[in-house]
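Q: My hope is that you can spare some time for a protein that puzzles me. Underneath my words sits a plain record pairing an amino acid chain with its backbone structure tokens. Those tokens are not coordinates but codes from a learned vocabulary of shapes. Thank you; the sequence and its tokens follow:
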Amino acid sequence: MNTSDDDKLIDWNNELSTNYIVNDVFLGLYLILGIFGNVVVIIIYSFRMKKKKDDRYFIPFLAVMDLFACASRSSLELAMNINPVNFRGSEMCKALWFPTNVSAVSSIFLLLVIAVQRYLKICRPFGPQMTLFWKQAFLLATVVIAVGFSIPLIFYNDEIEVKNSTNNVTGCVCDVDVERYYGTGFLTYTIISIISSFSIMLALMICNALIGRQIYIQTKAKIARINQNQINRSRVSSTLPLVLMNIAPDISENVSVSETTKLNNNNLTNSETDTKSIRKMSFAHRYSFMFMAIGIAFIISYVPRLIVLMVSLRDPKFFGKLSPPTLAFVAFIREMNVVNNVVNPFIYGFFDRRFRKETKNCFVNMNETECRCVMIFE
């Protein structure tokens, strides 16, 4: 390729890259928020909240997977957007896609493991639970499955030549070479991947629906018992003066006032206890609601990508027929799955009060340390 062809390729690449400016802005935000948020989650849950709790066990591991998935996917997509037709190197392409796929798939399968663990704990509290051994076994299994799913993509991801007939120049793209590998093997792998993704989504929805139903039943029964106790206490309080008058009319006036006052104080105390009991029950289920929200975020971020994938299966030249702005929009949809790895730290912060408190204390201590260092050097 002579200098003129190099210049043509650079001009063509720069022209196409302008279509991805909006995508690049979002990817930059994904990268910054995802790395920062997941690093904070790993530090807080692993070192600041040292008390090992069953509900929190999987959170640091999920944060590690989200961290790698967000960092690798966002960086790779950003590089592809900056070099839409000038991404050279088949080996580099394969090497960059493999850890991206492994971390993303691991995160997805771990969500399923967490949903099953929550289902057993909430819906089958007296049945077999996930012991530490099984938790570790499932963690290992998620990585092994992710590697197994990602190995075929080592062969499918490649440097793809794209030609510009107008300028008579050839560029390169790093992606799945659909036209080259379109056939029984590729279609089988893709269909299995789509079915697996929708199966995990369905399993998450079923588990979360059953968990939500059980929490509703428990809460409703708890409130019903509290209401019945309040009614019983109210009846006792209202009938006590009449009972005293029938038993001892001479002392009923003084005793009834004293006993009624005592009962009213007891009722007030019991009412406060009932309110605290309801709050405690709601607080106990916060991790279930938290993981439900994470599952919903995963489904929302992945469904558009799967729809695009299913549409493209009907035509191996689907992406080649799209205009540059449309390709940028399709790329934006594909990049949306990174949201699943970015929003989780914010979901933790919304539902886990202890996590918010420890995070705040951590940053306060950091600021105080910085101030002391400044004073020393001054």
